[in-house]
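Ops channel
N.P.: pipeline sanity check, posting one input/output pair.
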């Protein structure tokens, strides 16, 4: 057997026509180092052809292999290749007596290519052969290349959303809810975070080396974005700024959970960027588990909160808000389902990571399983919450409904006023308890006082029948 002396390195490679705007060929350059003291047989091949060379663990064609009819005399000193089949295989033999030897392999189709080398004839002598993987787009490993256009597109999408949000915020600047000021900051943060993500991979692609400074920034921004997004989604589902103007001590608990998620997120983000998917060990679970725990806590708390908010809205018969929160609830259930599915998929992939065919068959999808899907899921969740809050504040709805026979004569009024008259966007009836709580805590704002005062006037007019 030649297995003990067999050396191999593999990497994904893109065909130039599969990369938009690329004009250069993808090539693999194999160089023979002159410090080697023996002839070296080398072979380059696409992974599906790995069963088309060698014979019963015998790779090099020597006199014994020729005698056993494993190879013809013409392959003496090189790798044994089945010449009767068309394949991607190219062989080359480096001669220890010659200087400056190398050969170039041109990629004609996207695939997972390997370079293998053995001393020829078989011996335990040391040798050095270097391999340069050159893709048409730059210096990024092929497994990471999709992240470059992915984060570029996300940056543009978030920038467009930010511009639209800014224009709408300026137009309705007198009518903005406190929640929407939070959302403005979140959008700005996400734009900057996505730009740094794209900048990190762009720099890596340009220079072929990871920038430690950009890596740290990306890790911090990534964790911050996820934490803030979950925080915003949670307080929206609790009804903050829409059903109730304050969360009281619950807001402190939300912030503590957000901080914990941020810390674990920094660890996870750094691990995602530093851990090679091809060599990941069980220690990767130490990176994933704490973040998964806080994420699960967020989801459970968020689903519980939106359920309670829906019950409150149904009791008050606030049908417009109730319909919007039901839509958000369905999105959250969908997100939890997707999260569970991807968790199972990742567990399945981890179990099969030792399978020799797993990476060659999945190298183009690994980045999405580890990183991309979470960005997509987070984007859908947070912007659905933002869209709902915007619609709630700008909805041209006037409805006055009773709580029911047991609820007395108190009604609920929602009015959209012209922003120029200084009025609030909407009024929520039956807020006496929240008003009292806010006054005791000292958190009530001028806008909230105006809302409550106008609510009291409206209720008085309804009771007396005056205009």
């Amino acid at each position: 057997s030649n297995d003990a002396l067999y050396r191999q390195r593999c990497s994904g490679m893109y065909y130039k026509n599969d990369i938009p705007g690329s004009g250069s060929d993808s090539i693999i350059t194999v160089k023979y180092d002159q410090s080697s003291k023996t002839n070296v047989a080398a072979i380059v091949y696409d992974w599906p052809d790995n069963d088309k060379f060698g014979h019963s663990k015998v790779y090099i064609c020597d006199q014994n292999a020729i005698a056993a009819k494993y190879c013809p005399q013409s392959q003496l000193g090189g790798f044994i290749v089945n010449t009767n089949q068309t394949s991607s295989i190219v062989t080359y033999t480096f001669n220890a007596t010659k200087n400056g030897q190398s050969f170039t392999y041109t990629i004609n189709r996207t695939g997972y290519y390997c370079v293998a080398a053995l001393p020829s004839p078989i011996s335990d002598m040391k040798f050095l052969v270097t391999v340069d993987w050159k893709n048409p787009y730059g210096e990024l490993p092929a497994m990471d290349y999709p992240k470059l256009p992915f984060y570029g597109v996300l940056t543009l999408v978030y920038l467009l959303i930010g511009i639209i949000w800014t224009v709408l915020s300026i137009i309705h600047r007198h009518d903005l809810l406190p929640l929407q000021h939070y959302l403005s900051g979140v959008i700005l943060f996400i734009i900057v975070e996505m730009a740094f993500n794209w900048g990190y991979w762009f720099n890596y692609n340009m220079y072929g080396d990871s920038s430690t400074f950009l890596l740290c920034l990306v890790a911090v921004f990534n964790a911050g974005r996820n934490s803030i997004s979950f925080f915003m989604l949670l307080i929206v589902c609790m009804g903050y700024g829409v059903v109730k103007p304050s969360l009281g001590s619950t807001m402190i608990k939300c912030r503590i959970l957000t901080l914990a998620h941020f810390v674990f997120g920094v660890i996870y983000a750094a691990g995602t960027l530093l851990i090679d998917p091809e060599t990941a060990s069980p220690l990767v679970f130490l990176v994933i588990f704490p973040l998964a725990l806080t994420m699960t806590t967020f989801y459970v708390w968020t689903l519980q909160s939106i359920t309670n908010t829906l019950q409150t809205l149904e009791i008050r018969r606030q049908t417009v808000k109730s319909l919007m929160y039901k839509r958000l609830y369905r999105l959250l259930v969908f997100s939890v389902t997707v999260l569970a599915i991807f968790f199972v998929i990742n567990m399945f992939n981890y179990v099969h990571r030792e399978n020799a065919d797993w990476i060659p068959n999945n190298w183009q999808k690994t980045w999405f399983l580890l990183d991309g899907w979470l960005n997509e899921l987070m984007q859908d969740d947070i912007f659905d919450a933002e869209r709902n809050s915007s619609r709630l504040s700008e909805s041209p709805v006037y409805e006055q409904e009773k709580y029911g026979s047991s609820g007395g004569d108190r009604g609920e009024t929602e009015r959209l006023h012209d922003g120029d008259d200084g009025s609030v966007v909407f009024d929520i009836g039956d807020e006496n308890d929240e008003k009292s709580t806010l006054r005791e805590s000292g958190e009530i704002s001028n806008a909230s006082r105006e809302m409550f005062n106008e609510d009291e006037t409206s209720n008085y007019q309804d009771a007396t029948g005056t205009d």
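N.P.: looks fine end to end. The beta strands are 7-13, 27-32, 40-46, 90-94, 102-106, 111-119, 129-134, 399-402, 411-414.
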